[in-house]
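RETRY 2/3 - previous attempt timed out on the joint model. Re-submitting the same 461-residue input unchanged.
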Amino acid sequence: MLTKRIIPCLDVKNGRVVKGVKYRDHRDVGDPVELAAFYNDEGADELVFYDITASSDDRPIVLDIVERTARQIFIPLTVAGRLRTTEDMRLMLESGADKVSIDTAAVLNPALIREGALRFGSQCIVLGMDAKRTAGNSSMRWEIFTHTGTGGGRATGIDAIEWAKKAVELGAGEITVNSIDADGTQAGYDLELLKTISENVSVPVVASGGAGTPEDLYKAVVQGKADAVLAASIFHYGTYPISEIKKYLSDRGIPVRV
Amino acid sequence: MIAVIDYGAGNIRSVVNAFGKLGYQVKVTNSPKDILSARAVIFPGVGAAGDTVSSLKALKLVEPVRRVIEEDKPFLGICIGMQVLFTGTEEGGWHECLDILPGAVRRLPAGLKVPHMGWNQVKQKISHPVFSGIPDNTDFYFVHSYYVEPENKSLVAGETEYGVTICSVITKGNLVATQFHPEKSGEFGLKFYDNFIKNTETN
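RETRY 2/3 succeeded.
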């Protein structure tokens, strides 16, 4: 039986993991390669590096991190952030990334999904979507936002469900659904959004944004029908080791890799 | 020399990294001569089986691969590198493959998420050196949309459930092939590779 994946996300800026990572032991918590090794030992099923470096001059730093990680860690590695062309993707994949995740760039240039899928295969093209609940009475329930890394992001007028379907048609092999409303709140994922996207696409869906407790992850899988859960804070602050989360899920009948 | 076939389709880096981590020197190559003279051949495949066969033909690698397997030299096919060994694939309309092993490559059934992506258990159907030190039903990392249906069921060394029973490992003499990616399957994935190479040393 296919297990549900637990995926820690590391935000990398200028070669260091940011977001106030805190652990019980005294390792260098800001080093991406060390942290990747730590999460691997803890039982992470995949890893995501989110490159939030502002300047493209720093690209070689990220490539170096990916390369060093890929020599040490033998679980799937996804790189997200600042990938705008298939050439950007190629550099990451050749450095050792297994998947690349595109969000804003895909909205601005949907053909990038198709080009990436044709060149590297759908299995390594992830669509990252940032969706926000709409306030009004329109038929659109969640709207896609771009540029969410910088402040509140920009509204696009694009319906999240339609966008998910289109991305799969274009060749996305997986979709990471990030709820802007829930992101960083640790109050739980937007389960309705997750469920709606998951039921409307044929590819795996990864829940992102909002996890605060193991119960949130459980709900993302059971109610949100997610195939995997991605989180940052819940792991970084060391409150819940991955092994503990997996035990929590396993005790409640969710298949996980132990 | 351990040869890793690079037919230009993409990412063999993680396979090379995995053997490197285990302390084995591998040669990444598309030279028929290297492949024929190697003591073991690793064939990682990505993309579509039909495209892979076309690339192998263009690089004149079909005969070397066939000969290595016919001579029962150690050969390890991974993912698409497993699928192309069969008669043909349904992917993108029927495409002939290498037909070294009789059987078809089928699309995963509708109803479940495709690709089949993530960690899933491999049920060991036979006792084999490649499984040495790896418990039955260990999770390995899969990412694929098609799977092999060998005509000769006795080749099936491992099975995995995903809507259908997927043949996830085949063995035939010194030929081993996996649908999953050992290089992405953590400690036990590395162990699988190590077992494969160690087994070639004792032969």
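The first helix of chain B runs from residue 13 to 21. Closing ticket.
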